[in-house]
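ARCHIVE CARD
CATEGORY: sequence design from structure
SOURCE FIELD: tokenized fold
FIELD CONTENT:
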């Protein structure tokens, strides 16, 4: 009788345990991947080797490479610039890179096989992340936790807003790019209007330390916290909750419908997939070898991840 009972219990645990998932595809980039975006059926990789690569994950081929010229480092030697951030709007590519001088950034537009510089070290802007809001307007996240809207045509700032005195970590745009959420080392998230820079909401009370990464889809925000908390905020309600991790959480991503959320929850660089509403674990993705920095959902079942190495992984949820 006891053996039968134990067998039923063990069978139930196996039945309801979240499945382990291995990658369906491993993609080798040109260098350590610092940023990754998913645009029009292709992945864009920004590397520390001064290169942006465009990868067609269905055909399994690289379709385009954009290489920046080498810059002088602090020793005076020529070295490939680290590309911190990449984006694309139609056929226009956006690159944000290290200038090699004073910690300031270079900003580039690549279009029609021509690369044009918009900002250099002489502009003294220490930007960490850049994204298109429109084809002619770029949102910048500065290390000083300032949000800047930059006009491509005039090469001028349309607004600059100081969000707090804490160091900037990350920002994410919502689906229609009308709002952006900014994360910093304090754990407080600021939601701004991307046209005016006006702070619309201050979200706090969930993370008590640095929020490394954020995602923003529909009216939901997820945050990857140094305090081992995977934050979930409802922007409309202004309320938040969290899922507890066992290690510092470096990356997060929301599925397009926000029904699923991903967090890098442990020291083994595994990715945990949850039902956002119930917080129940759906699957665990195993195989990433380094600290995760980006998680992107293509749809509700296919996602991509990159970490502090040259391997990008594609996953298929059961």
């Amino acid at each position: 009788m006891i053996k039968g009972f134990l067998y039923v219990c063990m069978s139930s645990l196996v039945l309801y345990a979240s499945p382990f998932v291995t990658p369906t595809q491993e993609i080798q980039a040109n260098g350590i991947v610092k940023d990754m975006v998913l645009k029009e059926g292709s992945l864009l990789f920004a590397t520390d080797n001064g290169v942006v690569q465009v990868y067609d994950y269905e055909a399994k081929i690289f379709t385009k490479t954009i290489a920046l010229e080498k810059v002088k480092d602090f020793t005076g030697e020529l070295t490939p610039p680290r590309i911190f951030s990449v984006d694309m709007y139609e056929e226009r590519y956006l690159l944000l890179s290290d200038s090699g001088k004073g910690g300031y950034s270079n900003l580039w537009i690549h279009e029609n096989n021509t690369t044009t510089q918009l900002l250099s070290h002489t502009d003294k802007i220490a930007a960490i992340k850049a994204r298109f809001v429109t084809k002619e307007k770029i949102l910048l996240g500065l290390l000083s936790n300032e949000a800047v809207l930059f006009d491509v045509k005039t090469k001028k700032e349309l607004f600059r807003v100081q969000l707090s005195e804490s160091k900037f970590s990350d920002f994410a745009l919502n689906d229609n790019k009308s709002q952006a959420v900014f994360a910093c080392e304090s754990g407080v998230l600021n939601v701004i209007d991307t046209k005016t820079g006006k702070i619309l909401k201050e979200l706090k009370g969930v993370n008590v330390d640095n929020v490394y990464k954020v995602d923003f889809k529909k009216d939901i925000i997820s945050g990857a916290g140094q305090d081992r908390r995977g934050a979930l905020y409802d922007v409309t309600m202004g309320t938040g909750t969290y899922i507890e991790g066992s290690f510092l959480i470096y990356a997060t991503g929301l599925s397009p419908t926000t029904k699923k959320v991903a967090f890098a929850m442990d020291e083994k660089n595994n990715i945990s997939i949850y039902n956002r509403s119930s917080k129940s674990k759906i699957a665990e993705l195993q195989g990433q070898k380094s600290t995760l920095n980006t998680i992107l959902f293509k749809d509700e079942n296919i996602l991509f991840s990159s970490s502090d190495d040259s391997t990008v992984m594609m996953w298929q949820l059961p």
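CARD ANNOTATION: The domain at 176-318 is CATH 2.130.10.10 (Methylamine Dehydrogenase; Chain H). Residues 1-16 have pLDDT under 50 and may be disordered.
SHELF: design records, drawer C
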